[in-house]
Design a protein that fits this description.
By secondary structure, the protein is α+β, with helices and mostly antiparallel strands. The chain has a domain of 65 residues: GIY-YIG endonuclease (3-Layer(aba) Sandwich), CATH 3.40.1440.10. Helix content is 62%, strand content 16%. A three-stranded antiparallel β-sheet has the order 2-1-3, with helices on both faces. The N and C termini lie far apart (54 Å).
């Protein structure tokens, strides 16, 4: 699936693009083999990504975001941070629940072993 992404450059400007593999694309930018714009503004950091269904959709979304004023791009970046923060929190909560379940299972096994 293609993605639209925004990277923050070293000079605090934004670059918007699209890619199938965002992680690889950011590495390519940081290796100096990405877009001409980012080559002189290294390093770049991924600050926003959005998955789309098709390449044409990703390309249209990229063009739309590129037309946004900086303030609107900042809102996108901030919304992504909130989504990521919530997702991390939910993952931590699930991990805690798994740990509790594992601890309960161990206690049950230990109790069964003692009663035999």
């Amino acid at each position: 699936m293609p993605f639209v992404y925004i990277v923050r450059c070293a000079d605090n400007t934004f670059y918007t693009g699209w890619a199938v593999d965002v992680t690889l694309r950011v590495k390519t930018h940081n290796a100096g083999r990405g877009a001409r714009y980012t080559r002189t503004r290294l390093p770049v950091k991924l600050v926003y990504s959005e998955e789309l269904a098709t390449r044409p959709e990703a390309m249209r979304r990229e063009r739309a975001i590129k037309r946004y004023p900086r303030a609107k791009k900042l809102k996108l970046v901030k919304s992504q941070k909130l989504i990521n923060r919530r997702a991390r929190s939910e993952r931590r909560e699930k991990e805690r629940e798994k740990e509790k379940d594992s601890a309960r299972a161990l206690r049950v096994c230990a109790l069964r072993g003692k009663s035999s």
